[in-house]
Amino acid sequence: MSKPSQRNAQLRRQCPEIEFEHHRLPALGYEPVGEVGFIRCIAHGYPTPLARWHSHPEYELHLIVATSGNAFIGDWMGPFEPGQLILCGPNLPHNWVSLEAPDDGVARRDLAIQFLPAPIFEAAQKIPELAEATGMLERARHGIEFFGFSAAAERHWTQIKAAQGLKRFGLFCDLLADLARCTDCRTLSSMQFDAELDGEPISDLVNRIAANPEEPVSVTTMAAELGMNTGRFARLFRRATGNSFVGYVTQMRVNKACRLLMETDSYVTSICYEAGFNNVANFNRHFLEIKGITPSEFRRTRNQRFLNI
User: Fold this and answer.
1) Taking each helix axis from N to C terminus, what angle separates 165-181 and 131-139, rounded to the nearest 10 degrees?
2) Core vs surface per residue 202-239: b (16+ CB within 10 A) or e
3) Collapsing DSSP states into helix, strand and coil, what is residue 99?
4) pLDDT, position 7
5) Where are the domains of the chain?
6) 197 secondary structure, DSSP code
7) Could you tell me if 305 and 15 are in contact, meaning their C-beta atoms sit under 8 angstroms apart?
8) Do residues 91 and 30 lie in contact, with contact meaning Cβ atoms separated by under 8 Å?
């Protein structure tokens, strides 16, 4: 058995590496700091030091143009191939690991645009037109995958890359507008909903469950807490979250299990109870239904996100 210090070192390595400015070298595909504003274009090949399990405070729109493999966005994982387009929110860990690539790599695999959230959200308080984008950006804090948009995204990237100053900002706004209007998309990583309907404080309850999904809860007790009958509570809850109460609690418990599988070396059986499930059979069944693989398979596959190849 490994010593506590060794286990702690291993867990530290499993944390996403924070990307700092000294990582952003022009030789690796970044635009020089002095030549751009808050909108920065990146293009790089594979393998590269940039392909690692990491996070940063900027949004990142990421287009894959070559190779295939596995993508890791927060606690979501799935295959990728050329044309995959994902918008990652601030501080959302991510990595793309190519499993089918030439032995000598490829010169260009990724086209990305990074931008800080503050300029847009602060400007939206005075420029109402930006509200069209901020709703989409809020959802992207958990990662959004867009479908059927890769060719347009590459054209946008090329135009933005070639422009500077106000012209670049205008082209960037065109990109945001097109993304905000794209309806063929899906959210990837674990979600926490903020909702308040008809003046009812559903949002507080939803966020409380998301923060502590292992706590014992029931429709009856939650409805009573809000002074509602169970029927009205169930309708409001589904409108707020898009899910039934039981389904949402189960999803949040699976999400917590995913984080524990990623960030700890606890036994799967221990994680089952820590996440709020009352038996291992139910835990495995719900995990498989939601994630498509078993908890053990999830942990094994997730370890690929540490590959820096």
Assistant:
1) 70
2) beebbeebbeebbeebebeebbeeeebeeeebbebbee
3) strand
4) 47
5) 13-187, 202-306
6) B
7) no
8) no
Token pair listed for 227: 């002074």
CA distance 105 to 181: 35
Average pLDDT of the chain is: 87
- The candidate with the shortest Cα–Cα distance to 222, out of 211, 212, 233, is 233
Asked whether the domain spanning 202-306 has the same topology as the one spanning 13-187, the reply is: no
Of all residues in the chain, what percent carry a pLDDT higher than 70? 88
Please measure the distance between the N-terminal and C-terminal CA atoms of the chain and give it in whole angstroms.
29
Residue 196: CB atoms within 10 A of its CB come to 13
In degrees, to the nearest 5, what angle opens at C-alpha 13 toward C-alphas 115 and 271? 100
How confident is the model over 257-272, as pLDDT tens digits? 998 998 888 999 999 9
- CATH number for the domain whose boundaries are 202-306: 1.10.10.60
From CA 59, how far away is CA 81, in angstroms rounded?
A: 21
> What's the residue count for the chain?
309
Confidence bin at 195 (pLDDT 50/70/90) = very low
Contact present, 41 and 160 (Cβ < 8 Å): yes
Domain 13-187, second-level architecture: Sandwich (2.60)
- Characterize the bridge pairing of strands 54-55 and 17-18: parallel
Element (H, E) at 114: strand 106-115
Predicted confidence at residue 200, as pLDDT, reads 47
Q: What is the pTM (predicted TM-score) of this model?
A: 0.70
